[in-house]
Amino acid sequence: MLSLVRSALSPAARSSSSRLMMSTLAPGRLLQGAKWNYQLLEPVIGDKTHRATIYKAKVNPRDNDVHAPQWAIIKAANDETTKKQLDRELKCYGLPNVASTPIFRQMYDKIDDNTIALEWLDNTLQEVKYEPNMHHYALIEKVLHAALTGSVILGDHGYVDVSYKPSNILISGMGTNNVTVKLGDFGQILPVGVYTGTQPYAMRAPEVFCGKPCTALSQVWSTAAMILVWMRPGVLGIHGSKSEFLQEAWCMAKIKRLFPDQFAGLEPEDSILEAIITTRPELRTMQTFKGVTHELGVAREVKDVLRIMFTLNWNVRPSASAILALEEFHALKKLVGGCFT
Question: Where are the beta strands (DSSP E) in the chain?
Answer without folding.
Answer: 30-32, 37-43, 53-60, 71-76, 107-112, 115-119, 123-124, 159-161, 169-172, 180-183, 189-191
